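Here is one chain, start to finish.
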Amino acid sequence: MATAVAFDTLKLARKLEAAGFEHKQAADTAEALAEAMTTAEIATRADVREAQAATMAAIAEVKSALRESEQRQAAENVAIRSDMKAMELRLVIKLGVMLAAFFTMAAGTVAVAIRLLLH
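Its structure:
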């Protein structure tokens, strides 16, 4: 990944001196810049393509995991809806039994009250 950049430190130092830098300052600046440019890692087009391919692969992996998660969630939703329907049915049955018991008790109470009133 590190690509060397051709750099003429003497030419830069002379230009800096011509621009008003003192000799030591111009030489030190040129040397520091040359060192920074040779130790810096410069990405090549191949490096960028490789990083792009790795990023695209990671994105595809995340998309796949997301699809799997959505499918699991959809299946779970179906199971929950099925459970809710079963609970609704049990609740309707229990409510029906309770209403039948209530009306039976009410009818019995009315019958007893009528007998008591008629005697």
